[in-house]
What does this fold into?
Amino acid sequence: MKLDLYEKHERILVAVDCIIFGFDGNKLQALLIKRGFEPEKGKWSLMGGFVGQNESAEQSAARVLYQLTGMKNIYMEQLGCFSDVNRDTAGRVISIAFFALINKKDYSTQMQLEHEAKWFPLSEMPKLIFDHNKMVERARKRLQEKVVNHPIGFELLPTKFTLPQLQSLYEAIYDTQLDKRNFTKKILSLGVLNKLAEKEKETSRKGAFYYVFDSERYSKLQANGVKFI
It folds into this structure.
């Protein structure tokens, strides 16, 4: 292809936007920021940025996530491309959206203050700029689809957790109540959780045993298909 064919076409900006999910022990939440520039300055927004000349979309998203959270090696997955012609009032911008899962306890309060960031339960989301609400909703649906067969939900929990905490997470993701006996029986039958001798006693006198996820055991079962719920 001749170079002059490239030169005839208009330049289009490519951005990344990151939906960051966290779990507070009760509700699934998204991390939002106050937009610091026009258009839509001062309004709630996802964290995003433009793709650099020498970056892939994945590298740009990882950079954006690090700028907001100070965290690396976060679970991140490409959600899709948002390309409505008039989606950004400042110009022709195509956005590639990613969703990420983090353990809120690992997230620095100082980083949150620096970016005027705030956690919002998905049931209490404010109106966001452009098509960001649509991105969040699509990310939630993708998460609901993924956690059925993949252990990505554990990214939202501490390394050690109780079965009630794990059940609360799934209930938050699906926004529904689960039967305790059936949930416990199902999750333990998979053999992907290792029980610890230690108990969590802050929420009850009797306490609940801690568990850890066994990634090696999961890898062996994966070929046969694993269904968590």
